[in-house]
Amino acid sequence: MPLKVIIGGMFSGKTTELQRVLRRYRQIDEKILVVKHQSDTRYDNGDTLTSHNDETETCISVSHLMALAEEPSYESSYAVFIDEGQFFPDLLEFIKLASMKDSKYVYVAGLDATYEQKPFGQMLDIIPYAEKVQKLASICSKCKKPAGCSKRISDINGDILIGGKESYVAICAKCLHSS
């Protein structure tokens, strides 16, 4: 079954787009499974998928997607929606299982690059399996043109810092390289 990948930088509307599509499935009462990484606790305790503009959907939180394979909610689902795909170490393995072996529609949203503009997690690894890839842009915080990059503004060190506007800004490649 088809895999759709939604990628982009911070504040580009990835979660909002994922929610838009999953709501279409809910309107026709199709069984869906909505998943986010358990480390994403920015807005709640883990049971809601929340966009930066505060739109919410009920979800489950896990650290590994393959743990879902034995769950009744996975087995009965027609489509699986995954947010923050870059954080799942078994994303590619799960995509192969869900979309190819188990014939489920799978939608994955996530960052394609780190704040250092390096590939993030397995997001780029799943693209060869995708029927459709949608690259979203936000608005550059400096020049107000389309922005495909994220820049960390926090002083906190580490490869991964889960955060929002207090930690990152959207920035275009030109402004990123000129700063």
UniProtKB/TrEMBL annotation:
It is an enzyme of class 2 (transferase). GO terms for biological process: DNA biosynthetic process; thymidine metabolic process. SUPFAM superfamilies: Glucocorticoid receptor-like (DNA-binding domain) (SSF57716), P-loop containing nucleoside triphosphate hydrolases (SSF52540). PANTHER family: THYMIDINE KINASE (PTHR11441), THYMIDINE KINASE, CYTOSOLIC (PTHR11441:SF0). Keywords: ATP-binding, DNA synthesis, Kinase, Metal-binding, Nucleotide-binding, Transferase, Zinc. Belongs to the thymidine kinase family. InterPro entries: P-loop_NTPase, Thymidine_kinase. This is thymidine kinase. Its EC number is 2.7.1.21. It comes from viral metagenome. One of its GO terms (molecular function) is ATP binding. It catalyses: thymidine + ATP = dTMP + ADP + H(+).
